[in-house]
């Protein structure tokens, strides 16, 4: 069976329908899951092809991996969800673990734990640093 989000057969990552109920409870009225999924899809496609995983015939798989990591992060921390620029942050972790999206997510999540305030609505962390 194909993943409804990335269209990869056997994909274990949640599609929008599977994630919707959990996300709505956490996120509340600030943004719907459909909006978040749309931001993730647009952000992943906009990534430049400066890395090997996003060049040529590997681009579609690379974009799918970026989507997987961002969906997982949006579900993990629905206070942040997915912000502009997060796709660019996910790519180096996917380059480090090109065959293991789970490990790339784990490392990305650890990084975000240190800088997550910078991604909260209102950019409170950035304001404090200025």
Task: Provide an overview of this structure.
This protein has a single domain (16-129), classed as Helicase, Ruva Protein, domain 3 (Orthogonal Bundle). The chain has helices at 16-27, 33-46, 59-76, 86-96, 101-115, 124-129. The chain contains 6 helices and no strands. With 130 residues, the protein is mainly α. The longest helix is centred in the middle third of the chain and has 18 residues, at 59-76.
Keywords, please?
Rab-GAP_TBC_sf; disordered N terminus; Rab-GAP TBC domain-containing protein; Helicase, Ruva Protein, domain 3; 6 helices; single chain; mainly alpha; Rab-GAP-TBC_dom
Count of individual beta strands: 0
- The sequence of SSEs as H and E is HHHHHH
Oligomerization state:
single chain
Q: Helix proportion of residues, in percent?
A: 55-70%
Beta-strand portion reads under 5%
* Terminal Cα span: 49 Å
Radius of gyration (CA) equals 14 Å
CATH fold-level label: Helicase, Ruva Protein, domain 3
Number of helices: 6
Give a short account of the largest sheet.
none
Overall average residue pLDDT = 77
Residue runs with pLDDT of under 50 for 5 or more positions: 1-10
The figure for the number of domains is: 1
Structural class, by secondary structure, is mainly alpha
- At the first level of CATH, the class is Mainly Alpha
Question: What general outline do the C-alpha atoms trace?
Answer: globular
CATH architecture: Orthogonal Bundle
Protein name: Rab-GAP TBC domain-containing protein
InterPro entries: Rab-GAP-TBC_dom, Rab-GAP_TBC_sf
Pfam family, one: RabGAP-TBC
């Amino acid at each position: 069976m194909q993943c409804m989000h990335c269209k990869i057969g056997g994909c274990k990552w949640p599609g929008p329908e599977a994630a919707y109920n959990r996300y709505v409870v956490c996120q509340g009225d600030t943004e719907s899951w459909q909006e978040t999924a749309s931001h993730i899809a647009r952000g992943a496609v906009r990534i430049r092809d400066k890395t090997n995983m996003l060049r040529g015939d590997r681009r579609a798989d690379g974009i799918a991996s970026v989507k997987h990591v961002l969906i997982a992060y949006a579900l993990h921390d629905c206070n942040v969800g997915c912000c502009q620029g997060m796709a660019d942050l996910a790519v180096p972790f996917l380059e480090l673990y090109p065959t293991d999206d789970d490990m790339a997510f784990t490392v990305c999540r650890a990084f975000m734990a240190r800088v997550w305030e910078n991604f909260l609505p209102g950019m409170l962390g950035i304001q404090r640093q200025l």
